User: What shape does this take?
Amino acid sequence: MSKITIPIGPQHPALKEPASFKITLNGEEIYSMDMRLGYNHRGIEKACEQRTYIQSLYLIERICGICSHSHSTAFTQAVEELAGLQVPKRGLYIRTLIAELERIHSHLLWLGVAAHEVGFDTLLMYTWRDRELVMDHLAELGGNRVNYAVNTFGGVRRDLTPDEIAHILKDMDTLEERTKYYAQVATEEATLIARLSKVGVMSKTEAETLGAVGPTARACSVDRDVRRDDPYAAYPDVQFKVCVDDHCDVYGRVLVRVNELFESYSIIRQLLKNLPEGPIAVKAPRRMPAGEVFSRYEAPRGEDCHYIKGNGTDKPDRVKIRAPTLANWRAVRKMIEGNYLADAPIVIAAIDPCFSCTDRAIELVRPHGGEVLTWGALRQFGIEWHRRHGLDFADLNKKFSQRMERVK
Amino acid sequence: MTAEETIQSELVAQFPFLAEKFRVQRARRLWAEVPADKFDAVVHHLFEKMHFIMLCAITGLDEGATFGLVYHLGVPSGMMLSLKVSIPREKPEWKTLIGMFPGGELYEREVADLLGVKFEGLPAGLRYPLPDDWPDNEFPLRKDWQPKHAVAPAAPAGEVKS
Amino acid sequence: MAIFNILVFPGILFLVAAGLWFEFVDRRMYARMQNRQGPPWFQPLADFIKLLAKETIIPEDANPRLFAAMPVLALTATICAFFYIPLWNTTALFSFQGDAIVVMYLLTIPTMTFFLAGWYSTSLYSTLGAVRSLTQLFAYEIPLFMAVLAPAMLANDWSLAGITKFYAAHPLLALLNLPAFCVAMVTLLGKLEKVPFDIPEAETEIVAGAFTEYAGRHLALFRLAIDIEVIVAGSLVAAIFLPFGLTLPWWLGIIIYLLKITLVVALIAIMRTIMARLRIEQMVNFCWKFLAPAALAQLMINLVVKGFLQP
Assistant: This one.
């Protein structure tokens, strides 16, 4: 069979978000891969320059639906450092608690997606069921399943009640029990191991030179974790171990994430046990001083970096975001070469790609006209488009509230 | 002497011009400004002698007459050094670092796309992150860039009629 | 009477009903084992009707006649095969010496139609799926043939009705074919393209494989053909390897027959639940390394036993 090029994406069942991979095949074997990212580029970095710090915070929380807390914490930390704010201990603990809950939900989600990529839907259904426990807690603590908006400059916005603490502790036990079972499945199910080991291999040196981060790097025995190396929030106060694995393949990445789940349960228990009393936030100024800060955060997918340059006004001069997935793309290109086509989805999925995180930044451009829309215009355009097509949300909202009245 | 000061003294001993331009912000956060012609020497020294083997990000700054490029370099044990270099706005050209940091390819493409800095030595490849039909000479992260046509256009022909 | 048999019972109508019913059974079991609710009993029928009502799209480059003929061919071949298989007693609707081999070949036709359908769709995903279908066929076909024909050799009869008659008379000898039963069950997963051998239609890699370009009633017919193939393959396995309760009254026989099919479907659902999809080369390796030798061993055993039985 001669070489053929097969497109995966921008829309493809294996990808949950748009990205385009052109995979050149030699039979079933992957000869090379080229990728086109940027489909989710929304201009957030530019948009932040036109918004106040606090507005930017809510925008930044919406960079990604999975690691929303990661970005908002990294940004908040940077602004707090810029303003010289001392966050109360209790605020830091709650921030860290949400961070670890987010890590659990993200890793469980990934485990399911990875299983689905290799056609093991049962594990997908199980992990996603258990993930709901964490999602419920996040909704309870933050009022929303994905954008919790817990962070604010100088601390957090919501406090914990003793009831919530007891509830979380109880569910951590349940989750630990379930995770033990998944660890057993991952290490004992023959077909799963056959599909995962020796796939997407990358050596330690390659991981280091290509700049891989997070579980992707740690599965290649690169011992790096921002939580330990560059501690922030409440991490200096808790004991945990950085999970490293020497399999250097997708199987190793599964093990690292499963082990990190256990560490997260333990971190959450420690945080809730030692939760200090006191205020949860201090008041932050509207204007931030001029200066430059660089903030790092260990997101579920790896190191998340935010750089902020302030100019003494209430708007940042420059916000730069480096999401973990962006750091891992170069490694994917290396890992995927020489594998079978059947392995392409799992190798790509193994870095837990988050295209929204990667892309971020401008305003929307119409594909052919080359016109650029501002957000307000885009919103208006959307409303009018739907109205022309017989869908008026203003109308629907009215009807909905009327119905709710009647139900009452 | 703290670890930060050790790095400072070592670097300043090697590169005396850094004495004024080196700043220890707090634990594990170092900042330095380097003249464009000395950048290579400093980065090589950091990479080869001082174990700054991580390139965490490249930030492009629009500072009016110049563009600033901030290279956020790191030691795996947590030390971060942000190395800033300024290049003239009229001639935004710079050298690629992907020989040393292959993982930095996308960071450079991003700066090239959004700020319009040409990286000499960066191999041709698919652009990132702007769309393929993005007009030339439109660089959104420049301060003077404004989105044009800020009105909702009519629905293009051929769309489903309601 | 023959017309009634062919069209209604145990012919086409029964087959369609059973196919849809057992698709529900399979999906429901799969869902319950995954801790999900699962579809209601009429879901497969609703899917079928909905697909029939959908627009039929034929790719520009595809040959429209071949494209439309493939699902019909697949359906016809599976239904034909069904008439030669004894169900709840030891007689089939039609029977002749050698029909065991004909049935096996009729069951190969759907796979060939998948290949042609994919190939003539001219899309990349379809072509890849088609090639994978064929590669997989070469891997499982030989072990499957040997596994089915080993019992026939022992029975010294090449018609399915004759084989069932023989084993109904000597039920203990049927136990001898246990390895072949296992081989047949595993290779059936390959034939029916179910996890872990659903490689030709691996969703996350090649969308829907050979069926990517199919829509509307063509797809509906393909899906029906696959549902019916499950029943036919299940009946074949039941007739050859589970020849029990064949001499009972007809109504009891039918219940036992349906239980046997349920058993086969349940086995498929369980395997689907507990395994991940293999890669094509792992699948081929597995078939030739383990299944083919196992089937060969069964042939040897049956040859030796046959030597003792017929001095």
